[in-house]
Structures are given as structure tokens and as C-alpha cells.
Amino acid sequence: MSSLRSWLYVTPAHRGTKQLCGASPLQASPGKTIRHRLNRGGDRSANNALWTIAMVRMRSEPRTQTYVTRRTAQGMSNKEIQRCLKRYIIRELYPLILADLSDAATIT
What we know:
Blueprint: H1 2-10, H2 14-20, E1 25-27, E2 36-38, H3 44-60, H4 62-73, H5 78-107
Antiparallel strand pairs: 1-2
Helix pairs in contact: 3-4, 3-5
């Protein structure tokens, strides 16, 4: 997570954070099919942390399990659901990380 903090100083934008963690979608559509895949660039350790959080949530958190059930009923694959979960996790973590950074800045 410390590597993610260092990237936040460089790119404070929310969208930039998803790109730097490898959680932003890229189009992977051959022909008429509209599909996306995760950006494989960025900080691999931050992406690994996001993947771990997503897997734990899929197994144990009722809110995430409901989300996975709903998305599966919509016809999404497990990989697509994981991609969406990573993006939601970044949206939840970004304000927390910024608050932690501002608290650390006021202490120092």
C-alpha cells in the first residue's frame, strides 16, 4: 500500500489512481462484441492488493456476494465481475488514502 501512497502524490486524480493500480478498463472488442479487460500496466503490487481484497470480499462479505449474484444473473463472467469489483474498491479506498495522507502531513 505504500507504493500506492507514493503514486497518489504524482497523480491525485481518481482516474489516474485506477490506471496506476492496473484497475482501469481497456477495450478488448474484436468486431461487434463489446468487451473490456483490465489494464495490465501500473503498479503490480497495488493490483495484487486489490485482487486480494476483491477475492476476500467475494467469499465473505454479504454486500459483495449479493453484487456478484446480481452480476452473474446479468450474464457477466467471473473475470468481468472481478474487474468491476476492483474499480469499486478503488472508489472506496481513494478517499480513505487521501485522508490518511492529509493526517500524516499535519502530524509531520
